UniProtKB/TrEMBL annotation, chain A:
It comes from Ponticoccus alexandrii. CDD domains: CheW (cd00732). PROSITE patterns: CHEW (PS50851). SMART domains: CheW. PANTHER family: CHEMOTAXIS PROTEIN CHEW, CHEMOTAXIS SENSOR HISTIDINE KINASE-RELATED. Residues 12-152 form the CheW-like domain. Pfam families: CheW (PF01584). The lineage of its organism: Bacteria, Pseudomonadati, Pseudomonadota, Alphaproteobacteria, Rhodobacterales. This is Chemotaxis protein CheW.
UniProtKB/TrEMBL annotation, chain B:
It catalyses: ATP + protein L-histidine = ADP + protein N-phospho-L-histidine. Residues 1-103 form the HPt domain. Keywords: ATP-binding, Chemotaxis, Kinase, Nucleotide-binding, Phosphoprotein, Transferase, Two-component regulatory system. This is Chemotaxis protein CheA. The lineage of its organism: Bacteria, Pseudomonadati, Pseudomonadota, Alphaproteobacteria, Rhodobacterales. Signal peptide: none annotated. It comes from Ponticoccus alexandrii. The modification Phosphohistidine is found at residue 46. SUPFAM superfamilies: ATPase domain of HSP90 chaperone/DNA topoisomerase II/histidine kinase, CheW-like, Histidine-containing phosphotransfer domain, HPT domain, Homodimeric domain of signal transducing histidine kinase. Transmembrane segments: none annotated. Its EC number is 2.7.13.3. Involved in the transmission of sensory signals from the chemoreceptors to the flagellar motors. CheA is autophosphorylated; it can transfer its phosphate group to either CheB or CheY.
Length: 155, 709
């Protein structure tokens, strides 16, 4: 993983960028606990499709979400290179299956743009903002919304 | 130590003291003559008062003082315990507990809540004041000193006496943070004090151990105070030192003069001197406040120092978690080594086996730390019975059985609310009114029986009353009225009883100010289920009702069968399984379109396919697999079909909800030897899910379930 050597100023935020469903996303680095290789999970009955199951993280049972499926981009195809980003939100730890992790991004707060008024209500809710990097666009994932929607148990 | 933690310690001690108080009071009821018990109660109240004084909890002190004073009269045998006084003591105990709680939580109790009780308590004081001859019983002290009859001293006019005290602190006195100098200061306030240190026991420099106690002191105290007051100074170091007190009533004139001058003005403005000579005024007050030396000493003999340790529950939890990891880790290592298939591994296998046993030992030891007797919880319930019988005008007593049964502390804590609720219900709705009881030829006083026992790895708790039993007609009528059951439904008696547990069911038509039986029983059921337990009802008309709660011993570990369901490995709690059956295809019959029953010893038992219930793809065809016979509340016997049973083992329970959410049919998860997660099934929920999938056969129950889904 390439590391940026810049000194982080107070107004700067660090993000880890990754791709899921062919799109670029990022999460603030303070929310990320670790990045792991994909290992098979234990499926949970009566759960939405984007809940892959639960994984043993040193004794804790954590749910793994397919981030692409969560954002309606179709299920992530099985691949050896897939990784699981373990993130913590509130007192809860969750894992997000993504295709690959790319780099650490250091940006000023001002560089984070608000999500424009796009059509899909749910997409707007799950994205905190956007960052433009070298002519590509990186979406900042709203971890709370991922978690909240994930708790919905199918009837 | 910060001020706060000292305060916390005080309130923890208060809890223990209040327990002792409640226990003592209930023993007093049975054996009012037993002075040991009376002393124990007195001591509890007195110690609470002492501690409360140190924290300036004035209301608590004032109330405890009244309580203690009356208690002291019982101790002196100037007051005989009768039913009325006993009831007053019980209420005073409850009030004391309330005052402690409000002081601890720093909430203000309604002003004057205790005033009425104080007045009642003080009415007993009045009686004693009228006694002409006021005298004291001899105090027996726990050392080889002389026995002093203070009454004799009463004849001597405002006299000073010379106490000769030999005081040798034990090592524990220093370890507990006491300081002899402060004790001497307190003594000096009582009168004229001369202190002489005895240095004879100081060893050579070479063998000097700075943590040991070698000093002792001889003290001579001229005072007008009583010996009781003197002992109060030493109250907190009792048992931590050697203490000898002797008294002489003939002090040298030279020594008397200053103490009299000092203490006389202090005595003069005493606001409530009882009638009688001054000398009595000197002695009455301290005696009434309590002479603790004698009873405390006898208690020490009886119990010895309590070998316990206070530990923060969080620390124990951390330890339990870590041990759980250790067990899993051990299983993983075993499996890895097996996979290696090493040629000569005999010694390795042996050592691995030893590791396994040690890990298990540690686990059991750690679990035992959390286990606590249910006694305090049961004791609290006697108050609930008292309050409930006061509120309803019924007469009830609580009988407890198996108080020493040990249960996980968390279980005990979380049982308090459901138990309270059920006990209240038992009094309010279970018991008949006294007239009705008399007419039915029963004892006017109803009995609520609370019992606990260990049975095959579970804890059984039963709450029973000897009341009229459940009124099934009324329950059914109510359920139909509330649209919980179809009017044409025909329910068996147990099914009707179980209607009480339905959410929304309420017999609110006849509830009093207490919660009614039926009101909130669903809450009780949920609370018990959240602990991994089950609750059931058994009622006999005219004889009473019994609620049985079955709970796991601990919330952290469970015995389970490792099973396969479709392609998944899962765990099912052994406690819920009555029997496992490999069915003969001949015994399986199809009912309706898709529902199956199996014939077990002549009766037909419905089959619920676990894979179906969980929405998994079924790999086994009908008629294959293993059936697990379980007993459920509503359905009775049901057979759960799984693909295979692999193993029986202890599993460490991991919550799914802490990071995700509750999943129907699954109670928790565990980690298997290969590090994979296996889900732990909840048989009851699996059956419910199964019923929803096959509505035709169990239409009646399904209707009920659906309405509450």
């Amino acid at each position: 993983m390439p590391e940026t050597a810049e000194v982080r100023a107070d107004s700067q935020f660090e993000f880890i960028t990754f791709s899921a469903g062919g799109q670029n996303f990022c999460l603030e680095i303070t929310q990320i606990r670790e990045i792991r290789r994909w290992t098979p999970v234990t499926a949970l009955p009566h759960t939405p499709r984007d809940v892959l199951g639960v994984m043993n993280l040193r004794g804790a049972v954590i749910p793994i979400f397919d981030l692409a499926a969560r954002f309606g981009l179709g299920a992530t195809p099985a691949n050896e290179r897939n990784v699981v980003i373990v993130a913590a939100v509130g007192g809860t730890t969750i894992g997000l299956l993504v295709e690959s992790v790319s780099e650490i991004l250091s940006v000023e707060k001002a560089a984070i743009q608000e999500t424009p008024d796009i059509k899909s209500e749910s997409t707007r809710h799950s994205i905190l903002g956007m960052i433009s990097v070298d002519e590509t666009m990186v979406r900042v994932v709203n971890l709370d919304s991922v978690l909240e929607a994930g708790k919905g148990v199918a009837p | 130590m910060s001020g706060n933690s000292i305060r916390d310690t005080f309130f923890e001690e208060c809890e223990e003291l209040l327990e002792a108080l409640v226990e003592g009071l209930s023993q007093m009821e049975e054996a009012p003559e037993d002075m040991e018990v009376v002393n124990a109660v007195f001591r509890a109240v007195h110690s609470i008062k002492g501690g409360a004084g140190a924290f300036a909890l004035d209301r608590l002190v004032a109330f405890a003082h009244s309580f203690e004073t009356v208690m002291d009269m019982v101790r002196d045998r100037t007051l005989t315990v009768d039913e009325k006084l006993m009831a007053l003591f019980h209420r005073a105990g409850d009030q004391l507990s309330d005052l402690v709680t409000s002081a601890r939580d720093e909430t203000e109790l309604a002003p004057g809540a205790e005033a009425c009780l104080i007045k009642e308590l003080e009415s007993y004081l009045g009686e004693s004041d009228r006694e002409e001859d006021f005298s004291f019983d001899a105090l027996t002290l726990d050392f080889d000193g002389p026995t002093i009859d203070i009454a004799v001293e009463a004849d001597a006019i405002p006299s000073t006496r010379l106490f000769t005290i030999r005081f040798k602190p034990g090592r524990a006195l220093y370890e507990n943070g006491h300081e002899p100098l402060l004790i001497f200061d307190a003594l000096a306030e009582l009168g004229d004090l001369k202190v002489e240190a005895d240095l004879s026991a100081i060893p050579d420099f070479d063998s000097f151990d700075p943590s040991d106690s070698v000093l002792s002191w001889s003290l001579r105290l001229h005072t007008t105070e009583s010996e009781t007051t003197l002992h109060e100074v030493f109250e907190f170091v009792e048992g931590l030192c050697e203490l000898e007190v002797s008294v002489s009533a003939a002090p040298s004139p030279a020594d008397i003069a200053p103490p009299i001058a000092e203490s006389a003005p202090a005595l003069a403005p005493d606001p409530t001197p009882p009638p009688g000579p001054d000398s009595e005024a000197t002695d009455v007050k301290p005696a009434a406040q309590g002479a603790t030396a004698a009873p405390a000493a006898s208690a020490r003999e009886a119990r010895g120092p309590k070998p316990t340790l206070r530990v923060d529950l969080d620390r124990v939890d951390r330890l339990i978690n870590t041990v759980g990891e250790l067990i899993i880790n051990q299983a993983m290592i075993s499996q890895r080594i097996e996979e290696l298939d090493l040629p000569t591994v005999a010694h390795l296998t042996n050592e691995l086996e030893a590791y396994k046993l040690l890990a298990r030992d540690i686990q059991e030891g750690v679990m035992a730390i959390r286990a606590q007797p249910v006694k305090p919880l049961f004791q609290r319930m006697s108050r609930i019975v008292r309050e409930a019988s006061d509120a309803t005008g019924k007469k009830a007593k609580l009988v407890t059985v198996g108080d020493s049964t040990e249960v996980d502390k968390t279980v005990i804590e979380r049982l308090a609310d459901p138990l309270t609720h059920m006990i209240r219900n038992a009094v309010d709705h279970g018991l008949e009114r006294p007239e009705a009881r008399e007419a039915a030829g029963k004892d006017v006083v109803g009995t609520i029986r609370l019992s606990a026992a260990h049975r095959s790895g579970s804890v059984f708790i039963e709450i029973s009353d000897d009341g009229a039993g459940l009124n099934r007609e009324r329950i059914l009528a109510k359920a139909i009225e509330k649209n919980l059951v179809a009017p044409e439904a025909e329910l068996s008696d147990p099914e009707i009883d179980n209607l009480l547990f339905l959410p929304g069911f309420s017999t609110a038509g006849q509830v009093s100010n207490l919660s009614g039986r039926g009101v909130g029983m669903d809450v009780v059921k949920n609370a018990v289920q959240a602990l991994g337990g089950r609750v059931s009802i058994n009622s006999t008309p005219g004889k009473g009702t019994t609620f049985s709660i079955i709970l796991p011993l601990t919330l952290a570990v469970m015995d389970g069968f490792v099973i396969s369901v479709a392609k998944e490995t899962m765990v099912i709690p052994i406690a819920s399984i009555l029997e496992t059956i490999r069915p003969n295809p001949r015994d399986i019959h199809i009912v309706g379109t898709d529902s199956e029953v199996v014939s077990v010893r002549g009766s037909y038992v419905p089959i619920v396919d676990v894979a179906d219930s969980l929405g998994l793809e079924r790999t086994d065809r009908k008629g294959t697999g293993i059936l697990l016979l379980v007993s459920t509340e509503i359905q009775g016997l049901t057979a759960l079909r799984v693909t295979a049973i692999h193993d029986q083992r202890q599993v460490v329970i991991k919550s799914l909800e802490s990071n995700y959410a509750a999943i129907p049919g699954v109670s928790a998860a565990t980690i298997l030897g290969d590090g994979k997660i296996a889900l732990i099934l909840d048989p009851e929920e699996i059956i419910k899910l199964g019923h929803n999938a096959a509505p035709d056969l169990f239409a009646q129950h399904t209707r009920m379930e659906l309405r509450h889904a």
